[in-house]
């Protein structure tokens, strides 16, 4: 058996790993789908895309603000009670959103319920990442687990919107929103009742209100996450504009985004299948520099087919970068703050994505090469930040 296959077989044979990966898919696909579903619902009920944009913007901001709070509760009380409570409150919020959309689709009311949905979303992804060190002792196997975790995110990123599109076309967006709510509730409750989650005990944490933010290493990693999130935000809008300018239709930009995800999936499979001698902090710098070069290839695309083809190599280092980030957060987070640290990573990525949207909007009308060069620039800047903060990313940079 080849070395790459052996690495994944070793992971699969670890107790509870198959269950954790399966439930991770069930809990994360709706997290990648619900924003799109709510966007379609709000657009249908209000008849206004700007109004739908307001509702989904509120949803994103609320989620970014709420997830670190949920992470801190998990780090304090364990996983089962906070996750179950959040899932139940979230189900009520989704119900309120659906009822409001049916009875009186005022933008303000929809935005209010969207805020409730975002604030109450349970931090399943952060909790799952915190569990890997509890379930797996071997560093190499744990690194493979983080690779698979990142690939689950890639799969969810592609499958979630696709499922929403199919369900909305067949039954209407309200059914898609309801489906997201039901799967999210079931997946979260299932996850929180698994023995590894129930037995997970948070480490004793210090009295600092800053939590993981008191670690210089975590701050460096969150800054990197903001910048790489901005890269993706620029690309999402840039792909749509590129396709629209060439008469292929804005929707064709989704093909480029999907190809980028395929590249990330391939890169994650290759990266997670082998052991690495270089320290994670060194790997992070090299990966970010290569990521910038890969995205820079997109400036050469003259048409949509070429852009789609170039997106595969451009996305190869996305998953490895995310895996390295996970590994370093686990190293740098102070005792008792691991889940909150992963949750802050989600907030940083969402914040960066919003920044990228603003940058891409400001560059609208400029040549696409300029837009893609700006995206690559964010990766280069992230590499500079990782290099400047290298000392904080060493084991001694864990924080007090």
From TrEMBL:
Pfam families: MFS_1. The keyword Secreted does not apply. It comes from the Bacteria. Keywords: Membrane, Transmembrane, Transmembrane helix. The chain crosses the membrane at residues 20-43, 49-71, 83-104, 110-132, 144-168, 174-194, 215-239, 251-272, 284-301, 341-364, 370-393. This is MFS transporter. It comes from Streptosporangium jomthongense.
